[in-house]
Amino acid sequence: MANGPKTPKEIEMLFDRPGREWSPAQQGQVKLWLFAEPLPRILFIVLMHLGPPATPEDAEDTFICFCDKRLDKVMSLYDPSQGRRFWSFFLLTLKRYCYDTGDKIRRERNPLSPLEAESDDGNTYSIELVDVTWSTDPEVTAIQNEFVDLLRTCLPALGPDGATRKQVFILRHLHDFSIAEIAASLSITPNYVRVLAHTARQIIRECLLAKGWLL
Question: Where would I find the beta strands (DSSP E) of the chain?
Fold first, then answer.
């Protein structure tokens, strides 16, 4: 599956049909899958989009609340004829939920330090990366943390239109979204997505190379 972790064959077949046609048992299969193989990746994505000062525990609570309040509706609205795979449709909906929840967390814990930025299209996005890993291997954790630290120091190099460019970079290179999916999500043209993705990757690559990390 291009936009997400590998799914069991029987669930992958469901994704070729609109969610409104899934039986309760089939909906249950999808829920079980989401809480199994892709869960670590989902929690990482949730924490990224919550933004500081959210913690891994906040990410877990947020995802559980999302599943309780929104997942049934997300599944019922899913329609593959609209040109979006389930994984991408799911993540876009989850992302919006995380932005709202992240705003609440920041207002409660640190109301004087907002971590949002307004993009070219007038929308507001949480764009900070956080130190987090779901690996239990200390060596892998150290490498991942080092990369996240370096990547954070390079993000300001993306320039004055950094909010949109950062979102394109994150969605394209961290979440494997397609050009069309990013364009729809950020309300910009596919050609502009290609330009931003290309320039952002060049800038980030040059920055990481300068710091001794080959991208």
Answer: 116-118, 124-126
Residue at token pair 């040059």: 206
Which are the contacts of 13, defined by CB distance < 8 A and separation ≥ 6? Answer: none
| Domain endpoint, select from 62, 97, 114 | 114
Number of structural domains the chain divides into: 2
Please check whether residues 27 and 92 belong to one and the same domain.
yes
Helix (H) or strand (E) holding 83: none
C-beta neighbour count of 98 within 10 angstroms: 26
Answer yes or no: do 92 and 124 share one domain.
Answer: no
**Whether residues 91 and 146 fall in one domain:** no
- Tens-digit pLDDT profile for residues 60-89: 999 999 999 889 988 888 888 877 788 888
pLDDT of residue 144: 61
Q: H/E element holding 130?
A: none
Q: What is the DSSP letter of 119?
A: -
- Rounded CA-CA distance 7/98 in Å is 24
How far apart, in whole angstroms, are the C-alpha atoms of residue 132 and residue 45? Answer: 10
pLDDT band (50, 70, 90) for residue 2: very low
